[in-house]
Amino acid sequence: MSEKPITQEPIKEATETPEPVAEQAPAPDTTQPEAEPEEKDLTVAAVTEKPAPVPAVVIPLAAEEAAPETETPITASTEETIRPEDHTDRLKAFLASYCKTYETKDLDRFFTLFAPDATENDTPFNDLRPKYKKNMEIIESFQYRIDMTDHYSVPDTGNTLVQGNFYIRYRLQGGTWKENSGNVTLELTEKGDSYLVKRLNYGN
Questions:
Q1: Domain 53-62+71-203 is of which CATH architecture?
Q2: pLDDT of residue 28
Q3: DSSP assignment, residue 154?
């Protein structure tokens, strides 16, 4: 009788299926987000401080009134380079009187220093008289001077171009002292032993 071969049944390894582990929800983020810096309102309407005045008018009387654009200074051509050196003292004396008269806020006298057809930054000077009067009402006190840097004679007209820098220190009603400065050019026409302003251009 033949023996049956002994066979070994493959042993199946018991494998335990691990129970699923519940995933824990991430802890809530308790850190506060950093506040973004507040942007400053730089619109014209948000500006409460009045801009500094320049040589003549140009103190905006309302916040929404735009500041005047800087005008191109009057420059002398190659034909306007005759320097009347003997007029230097007269020119300096006129500028000193011009500034002093403006400081006194005596507009009736100040207006007599301008020619009838005078312009200021290409605007007829007579059209600006009301603004001058309003500005003087809000300015309590100010100091003003012009330092001449050069002057030229205009051959065709005999007028004189004066170039320089202006400096102004002023205080509005109930305010503190402020300062401003810039370039200034005046075209002067002779009147007796003095001058009248025919053109006034200035900018910061």
A1: Roll (3.10)
A2: 54
A3: -
